[in-house]
Amino acid sequence: MTKPDVRILVLHGPNLNLLGTREPGVYGTTTLKGINQSLMALASEFSLELRILQTNSEGAMVDAIQGAMADCQGILINPAAYTHTSVAIRDAIAAVALPAVEVHLSNVHAREPFRSHSYIAPVAVGQICGFGAISYLLGLRALAERLGK
Ligand code: DQA
């Protein structure tokens, strides 16, 4: 196994710490720990290092994105509810100019109308949604491809 030379910030937004028990009919039963374990297994296949953070705070998400500028090459982000509200997170992604992939467990376009608008999508490489925990793995694959891994 070669030493990882590319680091990705994996950022989980508010309420995603409750995955497993949170509205399982919408978000499935996989826990955040389970998602992170699958991501780490896939990352090692691509020789990627992951920095994983979950926070319920918008400011902490902005800080993490700004921090990624120093030592990460890409961002995998589920902004959760902030997807639909946060100009600050969108601006942070635009500011650091790192490739970012937006992921959602649920199909945000098939739910309440307010969920189909994303402030993040215009500054992301792309958006993947609707595949449950697999959305994250598809997103990491897409980012790996974008980063030439
Ligand atoms: C979510 C979708 C958002 O609309 C919601 O606020 C979430 C989770 C998803 O992964 O499906 O918290 O980002």
UniProtKB/TrEMBL annotation:
Substrate binds at N78, H84, D91, L105, S106, R115. Keywords: Amino-acid biosynthesis, Aromatic amino acid biosynthesis, Lyase, Membrane, Transmembrane, Transmembrane helix. The chain crosses the membrane at residues 119-139. CDD domains: DHQase_II (cd00466). Pfam families: DHquinase_II. The active site is at Y27, H104. It catalyses: 3-dehydroquinate = 3-dehydroshikimate + H2O. SUPFAM superfamilies: Type II 3-dehydroquinate dehydratase. Pathway: Metabolic intermediate biosynthesis; chorismate biosynthesis; chorismate from D-erythrose 4-phosphate and phosphoenolpyruvate: step 3/7. Its EC number is 4.2.1.10. InterPro entries: DHquinase_II (IPR001874), DHquinase_II_CS (IPR018509), DHquinase_II_sf (IPR036441). It comes from the Bacteria. Belongs to the type-II 3-dehydroquinase family. Catalyzes a trans-dehydration via an enolate intermediate. NCBIfam families: aroQ (TIGR01088), PRK05395.1-1 (NF003804), PRK05395.1-2 (NF003805), PRK05395.1-3 (NF003806), PRK05395.1-4 (NF003807). Homododecamer. This is 3-dehydroquinate dehydratase. It comes from Citrifermentans bemidjiense (strain ATCC BAA-1014 / DSM 16622 / JCM 12645 / Bem). The gene is aroQ.
